[in-house]
Amino acid sequence: MKVVISGIGTISAAGFNLEESLCSMKNGKRNAGPVSLFPNVLPYPVFEVKDLAETVETKSIRTFFLAVTAAKEAFKDAGFSLPLSGVKAGICLGTTVASQLNDIEFYSAFKKYGNVDLKPVDRYLRGNISEALAYLIKATGPSVTVVNACSSGTDAIGIALSWLRSGNCDIVIAGGADELNRVPLCGFGSLGILSNSLCAPFDRDRTGLNLGEGAGILILEREDFYIKRGKTPLLYLSGYGSAADSYHLTAPHPEGKGLESAIKKALSDSGISKMDVCFVNAHGTGTIDNDKVESTVLSRVFGENVRYFSTKGYTGHTLGGAGGIEAVFSAAALKHGWIPASAGFLSKGDEIPVSPVAVNTTISGSFAVSTSLAFGGNNAAIVIEKV
Amino acid sequence: MEEVKEMNLADIRKLLKELLIESLSLEDIQPDEIADDEILFGEGLGLDSLDAVEIVVLLQRNFGLEVKDMKQGKEIFYSIDTLARYVYNNTRIK
Amino acid sequence: MFISGIGIIFTRGRGIDSFENALMQGWTDPSWTDSFPAYRVAKEVLSDAALSKKIRRADKFSKMAVFSALDAFKDSGITLNSNETIGIILATAFGPHTTTFSFIDDILDYGDAGVSPTKFSNSVHNAAASYISTVLGSCGPTVTLTDFSYPFQNALLLAESWLKEERCKHVLCGCVDELSVVMEYACKMKMKTAEDGKIRPFLFSDCPVSVLGEGAAFFMLSEEKCKNNYGEVSEIKLFGESKNNPDIIIIDADGMTGDESDYEKISNTGLPLAGYSPVFGSMKIGSAFNFAAASLMLKKQHVYRCPVLDNHSQMNLCSSTSETNITGINCVRICRSDQISIINIKK
Q: Measured between alpha carbons, how far is C175 from C152 in angstroms, rounded to an integer?
């Protein structure tokens, strides 16, 4: 049973939709700046989604609105009208921020006064993004939110693949979403991995990551269901692999043991070899450790001619959203036949064995790999196929 | 923080041991089990990268000291001895 | 999919034996703090000298997860060859929120630049699963899920898929949730607390009473039948009718999901009915504990007396603890009237 990618949608600082995002990447436009969403004294630039139109869904939480915006684009792309009817649809989205009640105002009032308005709690309880989306579009399949830190989006897509293969659903809305929030900004700052300047994944002089926000959503369908809808498949989600480092809470395994295993599992799940892979959309956050380990693993697995890049120079690190957004970009790159330059990369240091793609490049292959590494030592990879 | 200026190196070492045990959750270890010249990271006490950034916070909260460059941090964080000297010297300059 | 090991942490201790003892013993009074009852996990239960170095930074949430996962692994008696991996699936409703609030304390007390990176790392939902994989040395797929309605059912469904797809031979699959002052406050304000400390699963009330609980329950799930075997999970339904005819029905009613009147119809079959939430407390992840009770019942061929027997609708409650022949049990959870979930386990 093959699984079709029938629709994609994304929103981030790179653009309100896929077309705008691709345009930013084509022109090397990087929309970062100081934090405007909340008061903050930290010196780190961020990738915010500016002028987000407030609609009825924002009564929930910002992360959910980002997810809904991308989902609507993906549904349109797939040719579905909402709410869904007569379709067994599952929802599997990844996030980090939306899973926590990290409302500083609420908590400080609670500490001060003991009793406090519970509206933020209600908003939180309504804000499990998969449950909320299931409710909004009247989905009648399983729904669950993946909270696997920075690999959440990729893992969510992998879980969707399992659901479709096992026949639990006809279609699954999968991907990830996260909003920029003060709590993780402070947290990543304390870990010493945020950069004071624009991030430079895989560059010799990289100093850390920039946080971002956004969402990337795929509509995935069982092939038989898709063909019954009178459509001809163009893109497939052909495999997923996941492996733990079993090493450390915050640092990646120095040799990238888990990442290598996740990539190999994804390839064998797809039934392809490393030779078939046209490009890798890497996690590439811009931190010293991540980029070193990832570049080493990619050159070890795919050889020194591997074509890889990171799009975090355009979106920032969108945490739970990253895997979703990067899957969307990977699918779009296969479809349109070009991959973007790895923004921020200028020159290669000794510890980076192979340079990433430094200019926008035309491609013509059939298979792409998108990788995610997470906090806690999770590693995940998916394979996308173009017919 | 004012009291630190009155402390001698031995007192600072003792205080640092207590602070390390508390903020790095080294509950199984007693302060006097840490030798002054024991290597803190890797072999020795076995601290790791997450402990390193936690020590940055510890120095900031308890002594008002900012370690911004982690390369410099490597030398400072070598042992209780080097850490205490750093605290001793830098709390006196102020 | 076979249940080959169980590990539990709850208000009355650690391990499947203490859980079985609690089921035998029946209802006991919760602990009361400021006249608010809850089934809390005591601090003493959360120390383990053998593990203290490996998980020195872990918070209560992670410790409950690690201990119960490790116990489930040990209970199974399974030893792994070097090329075999275990999958880990952890589901939670609220995550390690005590640590999140403690991290916010840092922001409030020391400012944005003075916060503890260790606290932040522990406040991330998947920290607990990371500790489990490190302690076990397992490099298999590891995922943390969150859901307010069916966290355990979703975890089980994924475990089944992973085993079918041969992503791993065994999955450690479980749930964990913790109490906090904020959560106790929110529940006090928003829900009806049982003033006598008794959850009443069989009143099918539209405004049921609750007594909050906390803990963790993990299961070693295996593709093939192992030496230690509690039973086989034969069906996991998130929507609709079960095709299995059970001998006993266990319901998750515990006052945590609002209106419980929909449980009445599914309970009114004449079959023996049970519900053990009064033993471990009200939790969004309570299904995992009732599932553990069901697993024990199948393995031991033993039915446990319902801890609270209030029964206005004349249901056929399991009213005594005794040996009996059981071939199948349905575990039922209802969060919305159009979404009835059923897990069927067989001997």
A: 6
Mean pLDDT over C229-235 rounds to 96
pLDDT value at A55 more than 80: no
* Residue B33 in contact with partner chain A when CB distance is under 8 A: no
pTM metric for this prediction: 0.97
- Is A363 exposed, middle or buried (CB count within 10 Å of its CB: 0-12, 13-18, 19+)? middle
CATH number, residue B32 = 1.10.1200.10
Would you say the ipTM is above 0.95? yes
* Domains of chain A (ranges, CATH numbers): 3-386 (3.40.47.10)
The chains found to touch B (3+ Cβ pairs under 8 angstroms) are A, C
Query: At residue A376, what are phi and psi to the nearest 5 degrees?
Result: 85, 0
| For chain C, counts of helices (H) and of strands (E) | 10, 18
* pLDDT for the residue numbered A37: 93
Contacts of A195 in chain B (CB under 8 A): none
Q: DSSP 3-state assignment of C335?
A: strand
The per-residue pLDDT for A51 is 84
C131 to chain A, closest Cα gap in Å: 7
Q: How many angstroms from the chain centroid is the CA of residue C282?
A: 10
Concatenated DSSP letters for C234-266?
EEEESSS--S---SEEEE--SSSSS--THHHHH
Which residues of chain A have a CB within 8 Å of the CB of C127? Answer: 249, 375-376
In chain C, the domains with their CATH numbers are: 2-346 (3.40.47.10)
The residue written with tokens 């499990």 in the block is A128
Domain count, chain B: 1
C122 alpha-carbon distance from chain centroid: 21
- What is the chain C residue with the closest CA to A108? C108
